[in-house]
Design a protein that fits this description.
By secondary structure, the chain is mainly beta. It has three domains: 32-140, Phage tail protein beta-alpha-beta fold, CATH 3.55.50.30; 144-227 and 245-274, Ferric Hydroxamate Uptake Protein, Chain A, domain 1, CATH 2.170.130; 275-810, Maltoporin, Chain A. 7% of the residues lie in helices and 52% in strands. A hairpin with a 2-residue loop joins strand 18 (283-292) and strand 19 (295-305). The chain is globular, with a radius of gyration of 27 Å. The chain starts with 11 loop residues before the first helix and ends with a strand.
Length: 811
């Protein structure tokens, strides 16, 4: 058998060396260094627009804008107000105005660190010992954008721009799910965590496909979230390890095209997660959960300094989970271990190493059933939601994944910073599954097929960035330039057979089935290299940003069973871009407008024409309004968008799976979103989404104008959580949530209509000293519903009621 040559293209080591070289050249080509005073402090002026508000929040905004670290005791700023500031000022001038009238003063302890202290009674110029209270730290810059959110309301993100940018200043829709929200809602997977995010169908298969994270953003399906700024995209999504939410600092949704910074992506947007990082202060947590359906899990999270001087930090996070499911004979076993280490030789250099080890031994929870008996009543009524369609001795998806990566950052001065993110992962998967192909004529017996598969994946990704902050006259710039590269190499060996029929009214297991020799084997390569540049400009209250990226993408698919080594290769080059304009009013309102484009290579062959699939392309127009009330812990957005995508790909689930390209799709929608931490222990999350999807072009004229498969026109959700803060019941809290997903279609012909549904979630929790006790219920009233359909023989029930009890302790 002749193998297809796979040695072409840059090797990972070569690409890594090239990216480092580019970074070095960019740094050596920098403009003359900015002036510094005798103490090494920056004299660079920066445009500020900080309204009058509590002093603590004003200092936080200043630290982020100036890229400085501030140290001060929380008690020192409590109850104090700042008059704010506006204009182009040096850090010293800005601090002087922010602290005017507060009785406080400041001192630079290094070029990037400022200590805020009480004014000494003696009037001495030495203010360093004016207070001996333990300081809290407000850190401006990239680290804060990647760290944990204080509460449920995020103020900045690095996902939309790859730089630390306040959400209120980002001219695109970005929503953030904090670790606290994940904890409050007891979300165990990314899909569960996204249930209360705007414009997202969080669990496209109703939560019962436990194999991968499936979600849909603005009407476009995806199942490959980004992790630590790097893609997890592979040819076969089943080869990607699911993200463990307990191991994440935050999960973010960037709505709309993101190719100008990230390369290959759907135009709906991307989901990006950030791993837990080592902490400067000691952290110890243990968590025990019991679940219904029957299950138990344990988790721990440890962190802190390893050396007295704090130059070496660690984090160790682990999870072990075993549970039954709502389907008979299907259970899950999951294990996760993530040690992390940070080396900080000085205040300007950080290297964080992020290894991960994951293993899952699950039964196949996703059960494909006919529409007759799920969507529609059959003569016998509905098929039970706990029906197991497989065989107990042939029902597993075992997956083992190991990865190692790092995040490096070095700040040369107040102008230049270089970063590099890198990850290598290796995954092996073994699948034994039985599915169905509809009823045998005139019976209640399901025709069944078998699928056995063994697969492996090697995945590498690296992203090197150089950031420069400088001024040109009255305009303040944050310039970002970078080069990234990803490649994955996978092999898939599949065996397709048959199984004896199964009667849905009287299932009998232990029946004969066949698993022949390998009848489908493929070796697949994905490679993509992109160079990009972005400029974020600030002029008074204006925020203008633009980005361009050029990508080289290659997909190569080889039939390992073909004697002549038959293979298909797609090579694509594409230019994508984004431009956005935003005006930040002093009262907290920020209207914006943006335009962005996307592309995504599509591996494989068109089942209709036999030709290589074309890359999908897209473009979006968006206008919106953001609002962050000064002095409050809240954030609200409203947006209108139009997205057009060409060369849309549809998948026939098979087996074997085949693909066709339907033509064009248009999504026109509106999103309203709000998140707030209100007074008296009340927290609020609320979203509404309208998406008028339409198939605009297709060879089949009968489906033009139809709504694309699985896209709901309306979605809404609401989460309220109240904690009692005083009195005998102090620490007791209650949460309640409502999720509405409107009707959808299970095919592009719009013949299979999936009814909408409303689900209710609830929580009770109690915090006492270092302990937390919680009880969470999802789908509280046990609503039976169909999560989605992929045609009339591939319908899937949604997740029934689940209850989780949690006990956790921190010390």
């Amino acid at each position: 058998m002749k193998k297809v040559e796979t040695g072409r293209g840059a090797r990972p080591a070569t690409v890594l060396m090239a990216s480092v070289a580019v970074a070095a050249l960019l740094v050596m080509a920098q403009a003359p260094a900015m002036a510094q005073d005798a103490a090494g402090r920056s004299s660079r002026v920066t445009a500020y627009s900080i309204p009058a508000q509590p002093l603590g929040s004003a200092l936080t905004s200043f630290a982020d804008r100036a890229g400085l670290k501030l140290l001060f005791p929380a008690q020192l700023v409590a109850g104090r107000q700042s008059g704010g500031l506006s204009g182009r000022l040096s850090p010293e001038q800005a601090l002087h105005r922010l602290l005017a009238g507060t009785g406080l003063t400041y001192r630079f302890t290094s070029a990037s660190t400022v200590t805020i202290a009480g004014q000494p009674a003696s009037g001495s110029a030495d203010i360093g010992n004016a207070t001996t209270l333990a300081p809290i730290i407000v850190q401006g810059g990239q680290e804060n954008a990647l760290g944990p959110v204080d509460g449920i309301v995020a103020t900045q993100s690095a996902t939309g721009t790859k730089t630390a940018t306040p959400l209120i200043e980002t001219p695109q829709s970005v929503s953030v799910v904090s670790a606290q929200q994940v904890r409050d809602q007891a979300a165990k997977g990314v899909g569960e965590a996204l249930r209360y995010s705007p414009g997202v169908v969080a669990e496209e298969y109703g939560g019962t496909d436990s194999r991968i994270d499936r979600f849909m953003v603005r009407g476009f399906a995806d199942s490959n979230p980004y992790l630590d700024g790097l893609t997890t995209n592979t040819y076969y999504t089943l080869l990607s390890a699911k993200l463990e939410t307990y191991g994440l600092e935050r999960i973010e949704v960037l709505s709309g095209p993101a190719s100008s910074l990230y390369g290959a992506n759907t135009p709906g947007g991307l989901v990006s997660a950030v791993s837990k990082r080592p902490t400067e202060t000691p952290l110890h947590e243990f968590q025990l959960q019991v679940e219904s359906p029957k299950g138990v899990s344990g988790a721990f999270d440890l962190g802190g300094p390893l050396t007295d001087d704090g130059t070496l930090l660690y984090r160790l996070t682990g999870v072990a989970r075993a549970a039954d499911t709502q389907v008979d004979s299907v259970d899950t076993r999951n294990y996760y271990l993530a040690p992390a280490f940070t080396w900080k030789p000085d205040e300007d250099t950080t290297l964080t190493v992020l290894p991960k080890f994951q293993r899952s031994d699950d039964g196949v929870l996703v059960q494909n059933l006919p529409a007759l008996g799920t969507l529609y009543d059959a003569s016998f009524g509905k098929i039970p939601t706990d029906l197991f369609i497989g065989e107990p001795d042939f029902n597993t998806i075992a997956r083992s994944s190991q990865s190692i990566g790092y995040a490096f950052e070095h700040r040369f001065d107040d102008v230049w910073t270089v970063r590099q993110n890198l990850r290598y992962s290796n995954t092996g998967t073994h699948i034994e599954q039985i599915g169905t192909a509809g009823y045998l004529p005139g019976t209640t017996e399901l025709d069944r097929w078998t699928l056995g598969a063994d697969a492996s994946l090697h995945d590498f990704a690296v992203d090197t960035q150089v950031e420069a902050k400088f001024d040109t006259g009255p305009v303040d710039h944050t310039l970002l330039a970078g080069i990234d590269h990803m490649r994955s190499h996978s092999r898939w060996y599949e065996r397709d057979g048959t199984a004896s029929p199964l009667d849905v009214l009287n299932p009998v297991y232990g029946q004969p089935f066949t698993v022949p020799d390998v009848d489908f084997a493929t070796e697949d390569h994905l490679r993509q290299t992109g160079v990009y540049v972005q400029d974020q400009m600030r002029f008074d209250n204006w925020r203008i940003s633009g980005a361009l990226r050029y990508d080289w993408a290659l997909t190569r698919d080889a039939d390992l069973l073909a004697e002549d080594g038959t293979g298909v290769e797609n090579s694509d080059r594409h230019l994508t871009g984004r431009v956005g304009v935003l005006y930040l009013f002093d009262n907290g309102f920020a209207p914006y407008a943006s335009y962005a484009t996307s592309f995504k290579p599509t591996p494989g062959l068109n089942a209709t024409t036999g030709e290589a699939l074309k890359p999908t392309t897209g473009e979006q127009y968006e206008i919106g309004l953001k609002y962050q009330p000064p002095g409050s812990d809240s954030y609200f957005t409203a947006s209108l968008y139009t997205i057009d995508q060409e060369n849309v790909t549809s998948t026939n689930p098979g087996p074997p799976a085949t693909q066709t390209q339907t033509g064009g799709v248009r999504m026109r929608g509106m999103e309203l979103s709000g998140v707030a931490d209100l007074d008296n222990g009340l927290k609020l999350i609320a979203n509404y989404s309208l998406n008028a999807g339409e198939i605009t072009r297709d060879e089949d004229e009968t489906i033009r104008g139809n709504r694309p498969k699985d896209v709901p026109r309306h979605m809404a959700n609401l989460w309220l959580d109240k904690t009692i803060e005083t009195g005998a019941a102090e620490g007791l809290g209650f949460g309640a949530g409502l999720r509405y997903v409107g009707d959808r279609y299970g095919d592009n012909t719009n013949t299979l209509k999936i009814p909408g549904y409303v689900l209710i979630d609830a929580a009770v929790h109690y915090d006492y000293k270092d302990w937390r006790f919680a009880l969470n219920a999802t789908n509280l009233f046990d609503k039976k519903y169909v999560g989605t359909c992929d045609g009339d023989t591939f319908c899937y029930y949604g997740e029934r009621r689940a209850v989780v009890g949690t006990i956790s302790v921190k010390w």
